[in-house]
User: Fold this.
Amino acid sequence: MDIRTYFSTVQALISKTPFEQVDKVVEAMVAAYRDEKVIYICGNGGSAATATHFGCDLAKRPIVAGQPRYRVISLTDNNALMTALSNDIGYEVVFSEQLIPLVRKGDILIGISGSGNSKNVLNAVEVAKQAGAVTIGFSGYDGGKLAPAVDISVHVPSFNMAMVEDVHLMLEHAICERLLAINQETAAAAVTSNGTH
Assistant:
């Protein structure tokens, strides 16, 4: 596949993005934000990089003066704990074991898996559901086991892992931009309201 074909294929894939589901992700994240809940994010490989990137952007990008900040933890970022859990228990629990003492009702877990079948992501979803957290899955391929297991599924229908990861990363950027806009709108409304009293 040449470069131009790659980009045209990704462009066609973007048109298949389930934007209604992405809107639901934004709504869930805004609700968690307003209730001061925590958002956890996890994934493997390229999806781990996306989880870290998402956590970074969510912590910084939506910041608006006078507004609270998003509470977010990327479960991919504590290398010492991840390797300890992997070595001593097993890689399949590397995210779920981190969640057990942390996740609470009303929190959000975002699991990212290109195949939709990453065992450690699925285990994290199960722990989050047991705690009463909202579960969100970003998947590719045929959605795997992740898509039907979560409350909100964002499925990118491609069997090309690189392209799935491209779209997942674009979606996290778009989501953070939308959250920034919402915070800006809220701040502007507060200024207007204060000015009328």
Residues 161-195 form the longest helix (35 residues). The two ends are 62 Å apart (CA to CA).
